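PROTOCOL LOG
Step 1. Enter all chains and additional molecules of the complex.
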Amino acid sequence: MTDLKIILFGTSGAVPTSTRNLISNAIIRDNELFIFDTGEAIQQSMMKNKVGMNRPTHIFISHMHGDHILGLLGLVQTMSLLLRDKPLFIYGPPGISRFLKSNINIFKIKLNFKLIIKEITPGLAVKTKDYKIYAKKANHSILNYSYVFIESNRPGKFYVSKAKKMGIPEGSLWSKLQNGKSIRYKGKLIRPTDVMGKIRPGRKIGISGDTRPSKSLTRFFSSCDVLIHESTFSSEENDLAIERFHSTSEEAATIAKESSSNILILTHFSSRYKDTKPLEKQACKIHRNSIAGYDSMSFKVPYRDEKRLTKSYVLEQTSR
Amino acid sequence: MTDLKIILFGTSGAVPTSTRNLISNAIIRDNELFIFDTGEAIQQSMMKNKVGMNRPTHIFISHMHGDHILGLLGLVQTMSLLLRDKPLFIYGPPGISRFLKSNINIFKIKLNFKLIIKEITPGLAVKTKDYKIYAKKANHSILNYSYVFIESNRPGKFYVSKAKKMGIPEGSLWSKLQNGKSIRYKGKLIRPTDVMGKIRPGRKIGISGDTRPSKSLTRFFSSCDVLIHESTFSSEENDLAIERFHSTSEEAATIAKESSSNILILTHFSSRYKDTKPLEKQACKIHRNSIAGYDSMSFKVPYRDEKRLTKSYVLEQTSR
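Step 2. Run joint prediction.
Step 3. Record the structure below.
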């Protein structure tokens, strides 16, 4: 059982407001931190949410617009001042390396930790035995990557009673079966499926960055447990959304619905919306499980086979 | 009668805290905005304080450390997104121009307004008929400018009764006297001082940036109405203050006292201090009118000849 938590560090697009920091989303899985975009003041939001500055951390940048990146320098500087010693991985489109290196040089920031910057192309960005993270070109005014975080499937439950009934002795043979390997016992072939339940799916989280909706993104976000999608504008501002390569609340909800995603979190709101509830309402008409995100909103995502992730379960955890 | 207001946009040094933004101070005189350092999230603090993004604005940077500057890019970008049309003046040490230009280039920020960047040397930085702003080298690990804002003196009060008693007819002759020129009337020389009160002093505000205390800074801050001085450490951390080229609360208070400044505002606190009241207490033992600054603290500074600026007058205006 590995905890997976989502935290919204900032939910504003382009310009912050007095109550919303610029865009930044995070996943914490086990002790590892995955940050998607680093809007200004992310470091303060991390402090408020007691995330800490020395976790194993991967940062993914969607695109080279200031509102999505400008908190990165302060974050790197603060990590260094607070004596981070773990390497920091930063992934993003071309330009991210020049931005970091030139500013670290201008401010003569002395890093105590290794900074690994990877300018990535679409496709697999990170892979471990526990998860994979993929980038996909979205549809914005400049190159923007949407990301998905896909947790590896877990093997099915091991039924001790079944194994015992078949007379298989506890020990190395059980381990082999648990690790997905068939065994031969007393001349008989025994497959993992003979003593184990169905493979249990890992969790999938999608993060849109800035984008117009598209069919290929819908496929990319297929069956997300949680889809964090930009909703810069309300449906009334459809023309603006098209002009500025953004999505409306209805468009985000349509992507969530058509991708068979479960919970939709709307974010990256234009500063014109003091109240984002009307955008949530618009989205809910299309995709019932839609929630307007807000700064420091955080909730755990359960495994699908253990608990159903419902809107009310999210809201229970995040009572404002 | 011209209003002059001080606002602290951020009061943290090096690293922000969950309640303190990074360092930034402002003076608003009439409609003009003067910002001293631009720590991360200054734009949000400006929004909270309803300062607006399109005032005539001069920004003064003390030194090229990230905690004093990193909010500048977001501020410039937001001003542009919100369609600022007035020129923006930025003054600072060498390096500030490269920082701004290279990042504006990286993010392809399209400016709607004229950006005038001046890398200054110590001495007079700005002069108008209403005020002068001077920079002085402080004593930090890298080149740091302290600044003083000095308002021009106002002429003394014009005593109508005296002018009438001397038989001088209302009109151009009165104007000449009011503008400080002597006149000849019915063969007699009449000096402005014959019909006017004493020259009324303008207000003076000092802002230290990051520095160790010094005799030359004490002279520079001579007779400030308000001195905003860094107090990174409490007196117990004197060794750290020396090692890192900062001041303690007692040192800030000693500068305030020896410069015959009136109100001392302590700021740029190390993130180790959750409560800054103990630092205020230490300062008050040396300079009674000392106040620990906090984010969004703001107060008006009256003319010396109209109202005495006392600590209680400041606190009345700034009830937390």
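Step 4. Note key features.
The radius of gyration of chain A is 22 Å.
Chain A has twelve helices and 16 strands.
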